[in-house]
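Quick start: what a row looks like.
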Amino acid sequence: MNLISWLHHQFPIIPSRTERPAVTAADLIDFKIVVVEFSDNVESNSGETITRLLNEKEGISASYYDAPFPKTFLNLESRTLFDLIDRGQALLDRTRADVLVWGYREGDKIRLNFQTEQQYENEDCAFVSLLDSLYVPAETFGSGNHLPYAVGNLIYGAVVSSLNAFSKEKKIQKRYLLKKIISQLSKDDSAKSLSIDYLPYIMNFLGIIYLSYCYDNHQEKDFKIVKNLFDTALKHQDLIKNPIHLGCIYYHLGQLYDTATQNMLRRPTSYYRDAITFYRQAQKHLSKYNYPYDYGYISYKLSLLFFNYWKQKNDIQALRDAVFQLREAEKIYTYALFPEFWAELQGRLGYLLSLLGSFTKSEEICELAIASYKNRQKVITERRDPLAWAKIQEEIGEIYYRLGKESADKDLLEEALEYFHDALYIFENSENEDEVKKLNTDIATVSYTHLTLPTI
């Protein structure tokens, strides 16, 4: 079967977009890619081959890392996953790479995986998981053989899709490269045949590439193209031997519908339902105990979905579900291993619990909200980030004020005043006039409430 020719008919349309700043070759700053020596046969040079291939591509600079070390953790078994992540993070720190490319031989195939810094903390619209696997024929790396042009572009697209582009300039560059890759893939008519066995993995990465480009363009036709790519991968799930690969496809369908809830001009409730359904389906294959980081990050995304659904429908159960999912993520992203992301989770927990406590009139839930905010201050300290620290003090003060007013408790009102004054001191020193004005109003309100309460 000529799979590449078949893909030519499945992937024909470059997604439409609103106009964005133009990028020229002179504007490009190369993203740094490091290809780690593959876990492969000793006579194979597949890692070097892919490094050469990537160096021929626009906008990236690839290097080959061949320092010897055991690579048994590349089998993707749950018991070695932590070793893979830790070793990859160490290499990312050492090489300052934007993307790390791993290769592992499975029979007659080479499996490629892609790792980035903060992959399980802040995706920034990079939809690739470390578990996402792209398979290519091992024989194509043999002496005198060349990768099919379309397969080379697919690997290039997988690398670019993996990038965490945090700055505006890098986002524009990433989009520019993806557009060119999609154009090349849509026009390619390579005669090289690939076995049908590769189809679900190729369709998964085609879906990722397309989604990475058009996730926020509001176009229904592009949504349908991405959905069709992932659906086609699912239709051939009988070819998938490892359930984690199936879990990744469900994960990306969840991401597709999740982005639709945020970016489609028409945002029906069904987008929320389908996003939640696919995320939960993914968690069945990427379980809490075997693949905790993927499970935990999906829980985090589910929490955001439930919260946004609550804002639309005012369904208190959705708010409870948002808290539950964030608690699930909190169990995995601990203070010891992920201090920055843990602090973000604590801040969101504080906010969600304060809302839930207010609506349910539960003092206990409000106390949990305060505890979460104080947990956040273990990372966001007064010395490290005084303005963010002061904002947390203000949030805690508002909870104490609400509790004190509702229970007519002067002690709680005095707690509120103490937190407001802490925040006021910081904002006065930073000359933040809006916050100073707001806090002075809050302090006056709390003081008046305190005075009007009867003395017991």
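That is the whole record. The chain has 16 helices and five strands. The radius of gyration is 25 Å.
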